[in-house]
Structures are given as structure tokens and as C-alpha cells.
Amino acid sequence: MIVKLNPQTREDELDKLTLTLKQMELDVTLLPHTKGITLELHGIVTDDKLELITRLPKVIKTEKIQSPYKKASKQLHPDPSVIEVGNIKIGGGHFAMIGGPCSIEDKDQLEKTAEYVKEAGGNMLRGGAFKPRTSPYSFQGLGKSGLDIMSSVGQKLDMPIVSEVMSIDQIELFKDVDMFQVGARNMQNFDLLKALGKTNKPILLKRGMSATIQEWLMSAEYIMSEGNENVILCERGIRTFETTTRNTQDLSAIAIVKELSHLPIVIDPSHAAGRRDIIESLSLAAIAAGADGLIIETHPDPDHAESDGAQSLYPEQFKQLTEKVWKLHAFMKRLEKNRADQEII
């Protein structure tokens, strides 16, 4: 339950009120992300207790928490979260253009990719060191040596890096990675999510290929309930009956997430499409719908990539896309500012 207090409530009055609530066998938390003074109550609130609470001095309103994902809910955190990943911010008007190969193959490949990604306007580098593959015979990544290569390249170019963690025992290997990625197959690996929740590092949480939005947000809640609120959601396409694309990009997820949650949402059109020819269209549509970032697969030589070459952009394609992305993002920000100015008038 949420209890809103008179904004003029003094500290001593708040202490007295908190003590009274604790005597009702309720745990009390002061919510930092709401306007005014708002308390969150944990415990059983009977009708008798509710009547007493509404009559307490300085209490002006009580609300039931509607959603099962409390910390991820917009009800407890009305303003959009801004997550800092290295030297960039994501959410609340800050945009991430993340580019890089599906798999790290060697240092030369990653350096070439990172250089043209940054030159084109990308502000973050992606790359897989550990790769969950459908076939056990496919390239599984370089492992720890891949992370070392990525860390070296990221530091050299001053670019934050993101890579996928697949199990709890890998977490300690990611000390130089700026953001953990949880893949679609691990979205409901709750032991992994809880372990990541005990870190303070940002988490890019991909939606499971057949997961509902509520299930996705509940997975975010697993991380946040352990203390780590630096979660960024990633829509990477859902499995449908369509066969002309690898998955189906769910643009409606952007609007629904913005309605239900304060967490930023990034779109992965590469895995949604599974083919490079429509990635630009899906990317621009995602920005128009309000996405906080894109994560794009690109490779210096996609035709000879170890994995996902068909959905990886050529360097020139990435450059052309990035130019359009930043122009459209700037336009959408101006549009939003004009709308806000008109509402004030």
C-alpha cells in the first residue's frame, strides 16, 4: 500500500507516524522517486488498519499497489528512470545507439567494428563472448578471452561495453563490462536474475521469445527486489506464426512498457528481423514509437561472420542507419518539447 502525506510534514512528525505504522506490524519504506512525501507499506492491511491509517495526522491519501511488479511499476516511480552505463545515459530523453558484432571473433575484428561504430555515431559497443546457440555445434564464443578483448577495445575508444552473461558462475568474469545482458533464453532464469540483483551494474534484460509483457516485468522485478534498480528492458522480437522474419518485432511493447513502467526500453531489430534488409525500417519505427535506444548487430564482413551474418549490417549500412537514427531522435525530442510547452500554456 502507498500512503501520501502532507508535503509540509516535519521530520519529527514523520518519525512519529512511522512508529505508529510499525506498531501495526507494518514495514515502512520512504519512496524516493515520488513527488511530495510518500510511504510504501509492507504487511497485511486489514480494513480496521486501513481506517486507522486514513485518520492519522498528515495522511492525505492511501492507494493500493495495483501491479504485482512493485519496483518496476510506474505507480511507485512516476518519472522515467535514467540509467547510467559508463559515460552514457539511457532513458528520460537520453538515447543509446549500441552497435557491434553478434560474436567476438578476434581483436582485429572487434577493433575494426568498434572504430566505425563510434565514427558513425554509436555510443556503446556490444559483442558476445559467451554465445547461447540453438545448435551445440555452432560457434559458442571465445569466453573469457573475448571479454578481455572487449574490455581493451572499449577502454581504447572510451565506449561502454555490453555482453551477455549466461550463468551465475560467469558474473565475476564481467568485472570490466559496463552492462550485463540477459538473453531471451535466460529471462526466467530466476537464480541468475537474483544474483545479478545483488550487483550494482546495469542489466539489459531481453524479453523471452514467448513471454508476455507482465512476465517480462516480473523478471525485472526479480532483479530489482534484490537491490539493483539499474534495469533496461530490451524487446528483441517475439515468436509468432510468421516465417518471413526470424521473429516479430512487437512495437506495441514500447507504448505498453511506457504506460506501465518507468524502466527504459531498448529495441533489438536485428534479432526481430533476422535479415538486414528491413533493420532500418524497424529501427526508425521503434524511435517514432518512443524507444530509448537500439542495439544493432554489425560486422566488418558479415558474409564471413561466425554467427548471425545474415542479420548483421555492413559498415556502410550501419553508418547510414545511425545518421537517420540521430536525426529522427532529435526530431522526436523537439516534438515532445513542443507538446509539453503547449500543455503548460
UniProtKB/TrEMBL annotation:
Domain DAHP synthetase I/KDSA span(s) in chain numbering: 87-332
EC number from the UniProt entry: 2.5.1.54
Pfam families tied to this protein: DAHP_synth_1
EC primary class: transferase
UniProt keyword annotation of Transferase present: yes
An MF annotation (GO) of this entry: 3-deoxy-7-phosphoheptulonate synthase activity
Superkingdom of origin organism: Bacteria
Keywords linked to the UniProt accession: Transferase
Keyword flag Transferase: yes
PANTHER family: PHOSPHO-2-DEHYDRO-3-DEOXYHEPTONATE ALDOLASE
NCBIfam families assigned to the protein according to its UniProt record, in alphabetical order: DAHP_synth_Bsub, PRK08673.1, PRK12595.1
Protein name per Swiss-Prot or TrEMBL: 3-deoxy-7-phosphoheptulonate synthase
Organism of provenance: Ruoffia tabacinasalis
